[in-house]
Amino acid sequence: GTLYRKQGRYGEAEKTLKRSLKVLENKLGKDHPQYAKTLDQLEAYIGNWAVSEAEKVLKQALAIRQRRKGPEHKSVGQSLHNLANIYRQIGRYAEAEDFYPRALAIREKTLGAEHSGLAKTLDRLGDLYRRLKRFEAAEKALLRALNIRQRTKGE
């Protein structure tokens, strides 16, 4: 799926990832971390799905990761980040606001305070605060993301 996605062949990438899910389900079961990772990768195709389906898939990935890797694992932070993104994009801001701080805390703890993944979560949180017209909070999150990127040169 990743190769097709990088080539801009999104329909083929989605189909490949869905086939991978079936293989993983048959070989490893639905509770395996690799199954959860593949579910999470499908989030990139949210535009092609009903929001409820995307939300269901991402919640399933989150539940698997929490059970199998623990509530503070970096992959849990990624799942929380992805769920918050969906909620932010569709205007369910209260739910996004619940997930971003948890994602941020886990990502800072597991990735470090200077990681680009942390900057990504801060960017999205800043956008959420902007949409909520909480401009001081938005500025704080966005400036922190910018500072991380400047120190790491966008890596």
Word description of this protein:
The longest helix has 19 residues, at 10-28. Helix content is 78%, strand content 0%. The protein is mainly α and 155 residues long. The chain starts with a helix and ends with a helix. It is globular. 31% of the residues are buried. The protein has helices spanning 2-6, 10-28, 33-41, 51-69, 74-89, 93-111, 116-131, 135-152.
Based on the model shown, name its key terms.
mainly alpha, 155 residues, globular
Helix content: over 70%
Structural class: mainly alpha
Number of strands: 0
User: Which word captures the global form?
Assistant: globular
**Count of helical segments?**
8
Radius of gyration: 16 Å
Q: Give the ordered list of helices and strands.
A: HHHHHHHH
Please outline the major beta sheet: none
The unreliable regions are none
Q: What is the subunit organization of this protein?
A: single chain
**Euclidean distance between termini CA atoms:** 23 Å
List the helices and strands and how they pair.
Layout: H1 2-6, H2 10-28, H3 33-41, H4 51-69, H5 74-89, H6 93-111, H7 116-131, H8 135-152
Helix pairs in contact: 2-3, 3-4, 4-5, 5-6, 6-7, 7-8
What is shown here, in short?
It contains 8 helices and no strands. The protein has helices at residues 2-6, 10-28, 33-41, 51-69, 74-89, 93-111, 116-131, 135-152.
